């Protein structure tokens, strides 16, 4: 099992802790606010009060031994930057840092953050995608031109048809990885999988192709 440390228990950091705990993961939660830490005593594996800018504190909890360290102090740029730097210097394998701005993201990258998250910017892009492509319910970017997306089968023309008949890959350069049927069952997207109106399909492909497909099905 992987080990996780989350530093900063605001809305973002707190959500990460809760999500990891719900999935049975071991997670250390750190914040300098005692009242906030108390809220996570029964959620995290361990919740402690501490100033993440204190190198001795980070060293005492063995921050370098965690598989993932999430620095969720995006609103305090100096604290976030120093905490990220200290975590890397103490041997943290993978540091995921929250940035409030693109400039902060660049600074975090320079001090060693392995992954940088911009929740507000990401949420804005997701909303834009939903507004433009209303049939895309969830998605995430795999690279600058590839994406994974969830979309709903709406077209009566696809009712009862096999995935192989529609030829997603050859016509659209898209792979259907999974199908969630209206009865709640799921199956891997094989060629003989039969689609029905109301099913959700999970696809991987180039962004433009996925966007076009979402308006066709």
UniProtKB/TrEMBL annotation:
Pfam families: TrkA_C (PF02080), TrkA_N (PF02254)
Boundaries of every RCK N-terminal domain copy: 1-117
Organism (species): Floricoccus tropicus
RCK C-terminal domain segment(s): 134-217
Classification via Gene3D superfamilies: NAD(P)-binding Rossmann-like Domain (3.40.50.720), Regulator of K+ conductance, C-terminal domain (3.30.70.1450)
Annotated InterPro entries: NAD(P)-bd_dom_sf, RCK_C, RCK_C_sf, RCK_N, Trk_Ktr_HKT_K-transport
Domain of life: Bacteria
GO biological process per UniProt: potassium ion transport
Protein's UniProt name: Potassium transporter Trk
Molecular function as annotated in GO: monoatomic cation transmembrane transporter activity
């Amino acid at each position: 099992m992987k080990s996780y440390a989350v530093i900063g228990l605001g809305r973002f950091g707190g959500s990460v802790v809760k999500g990891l705990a719900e999935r049975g993961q071991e997670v250390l939660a750190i914040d300098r606010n005692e009242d906030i830490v108390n809220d996570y005593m029964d959620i995290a594996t361990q919740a402690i009060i501490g100033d993440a800018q204190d190198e001795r504190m980070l060293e005492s909890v063995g921050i370098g031994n965690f598989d993932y360290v999430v620095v969720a102090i995006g609103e305090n740029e100096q604290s976030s930057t120093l905490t990220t730097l200290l975590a890397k210097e103490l041997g943290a394998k993978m540091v995921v840092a929250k940035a409030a701005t693109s400039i902060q993201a660049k600074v975090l990258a320079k001090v060693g953050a392995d992954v940088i998250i911009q929740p507000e910017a990401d949420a804005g892009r997701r909303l834009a995608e939903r507004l433009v492509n209303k049939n895309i319910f969830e998605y995430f970017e795999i690279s600058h031109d590839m994406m994974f997306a969830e979309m709903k089968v709406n077209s009566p023309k696809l009712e009862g048809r096999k995935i192989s008949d529609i030829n997603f890959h050859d016509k659209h350069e898209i792979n259907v990885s999974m199908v969630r049927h209206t009865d709640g069952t799921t199956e891997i997207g094989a060629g003989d999988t039969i689609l029905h109106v109301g099913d959700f399909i999970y696809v991987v492909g180039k962004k433009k192709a996925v966007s076009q497909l979402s308006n066709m099905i």
